[in-house]
Amino acid sequence: MLISIAIAAYSFYKLHNIYTTNILIALIICIIADVVIFFNFIGGTIIFALGHIFYIYLLFKLNVSIKLFFLFFLLFTFVIFIIVYRNKKALIKLLKTNNIILALPFILYSLMLITLLSFSYSVAFVNTSVENVLLCLGINFFVISDITLVFNIIYPTNKTKERISLSFYYVGQFLIANAALFSYIFSNTK
User: Fold this and answer.
1) What is the pLDDT of residues 12-38, one digit of tens each?
2) Residue 53, exposed/middle/buried by CB under 10 A (0-12, 13-18, 19+)?
3) Alpha-carbon distance 189 to 88, whole Å?
């Protein structure tokens, strides 16, 4: 994660724009969330959500196609609905044993991830620049990490599942940081 922040910081140092700024801020927020989540899962998740907001803001500012956004939003909502439906017994059990109050944050966080994915695909489809494709891929890895984390919570976890989740997370952040780097590199070739 520190390598990703170093790449994003270098990109920000060289090119102060919305792309590098939001990526750097989001990565810094996510590293803070990495620490907090070990002590307080809900607190860490809230901080991660703040990082997601910076990514969403960046993607929104990249002139997405609203039609594509809504198309992807419906598609990803359907996919999440299928995942939830196929795992409804485990989710109901989790909510009963922990607290039904967890349902609202789960739904809000899911909507945030769907929004993040939908914007990233919209941006990558409209402008297939290297940095936008890297950003989209990184966000995909990041979201896959979050989904595997949810499965680690719902079902008994083992170290392999945790490592898979973390691997997706760190690869995603690395790809996102490199999106900032390529934003800087390609700004010099125009």
Assistant:
1) 888 888 889 999 999 999 999 989 988
2) middle
3) 51
Q: Which segments within 71-183 are labelled E, that is strand?
A: none
pTM: 0.86
The tokens of 109 are what? 């966080």
Q: Residue for token digits 């750097």?
A: 24
Residue 19's Cα: distance from chain center in Å? 16
CB 54 within 8 A of CB 29: yes
Find out whether 173 and 142 touch, Cβ atoms under 8 Å.
Answer: yes
**Is the CB of residue 186 less than 8 Å from the CB of residue 123?**
no
- pLDDT (0 to 100) of residue 1: 77
Cβ–Cβ under 8 Å, residues 42 and 33: no
Domain boundaries, the chain: 2-187
Q: Using the structure block, give the residue that is written with the tokens 């919209």.
A: 122
